[in-house]
Amino acid sequence: MPTVIAQLGGVALYPWVFSAYMLAATAVMPVFGGVSDGAGRKGPFVAAVAIFSAGSLVAGAAPSMLVLIAGRALQGIGAGGIQTLGLIIFGDLFPGARRGRMQALITAVWGLASVVGPLLGGLIVDRWTWRWIFYLNLPLGVVVVLLTLAGLRETAPDRARRRLDVAGAATFVAGVTALLFVFLHADKAAPVGWERAGAAVVALACLLLFLRIERTAPGPILPLSLFREASFGPSCVAYFFAGATMFGALIHIPILVQWGQGADATTAGLSLMAMSIGWSVGGLGAGQFVNRLGFWRLTVGGMVLMVLGQVALTLLRGAGWGTLMWIGGVIGTGMGLASVTLVVAVQTLIRAERRGAATSGILFFRNVGATLGVAVMGASLTARLGAEVSAVEGMRTLPPPLQAALVDGMGPVFWLGTGAAFLGLAGALCLPGGSPVSVVPIREREEEMAR
Questions:
Q1: Section 92-119 average pLDDT
Q2: Would you say residue 194 lies in a domain?
């Protein structure tokens, strides 16, 4: 981004390069899930890849920061569909005992990409131009679309012709976008302005209207009856606070390493590598053991690891970056165990005709939890440092007094993360038992009797 800003200008708009993507991806997740329950998975998935590719083209060719932000928003819309539908399609293709192992592979791929991606991005910027970071998505998008069209076989259900819940989707996207706008700017030192106050009013009005629409819609994008399922509500709570814990640590550990310890940006990035690898290892472990240990034990075990990691992070925040890296690995492993198990649990315990809405629903709550968690923790750090925030901004290294103040200010931030981890553990404790091996035969018999 420093390279982009040097070419395009618009440094004041810099946060929106990230915010626009996050807002769009989070808001559309339940929309893609609900639409796919009625229209099948292939068409919406191909559309999501096409939208992401179009956004990449706009971002890569951007002559200004405003156009870059518009391209990022388009990318976010496509990414929300790709993330959601990828998990849903795997849930459809691999039922029963295989579902956990296959969902774990997605997590492993994500972990590998999160390590390779930043390194590749830095190489591209140093050797060529930042625009190729976006242009490279175009040939990859073509390959993905061709493979999907050629290889994905699905029988469109009769409900594919049902009327889509356009009003519900529109009010939901508008309400969630306004709500996330409030969250994303909650860490500003300035008092609440008319923009955030107006966004809060719009969010409340749109979400209340959405609830009213969903009660009567013939094909709601997020059926409210899902919250009566024994697995869905606790999964949403656990994933919400797991997202807050994980992404709070993901954002603040590099700040602590770079500003609090005077390390360079490369070292700060390396401090996160164990967290990404841990997420992959935990996800693979969940896929291997979910059939033996069941949903409850693995999710609770993952949340316990996140609690222990957060407590260690809080108490040892003044330790070297190597120690913080290992602590991040514990948190990432817990997240991998919990995240894969929660997705498999929802896809197994909830009937196939609502699998898309249920999967996208818990992913939505994870992203909202991550957004809110980062905002609240950032607001805590800002309040703690007070007038010294202005001295921190824009500096790569800090003088010793400011370093000590930053390390001290991270204490309340990480205690908030610890509290979120405990609340996620409370949600996990409310999950039902069972495993794919024990639940699927029962569900298949019930569906056979219904037929």
A1: 77
A2: no
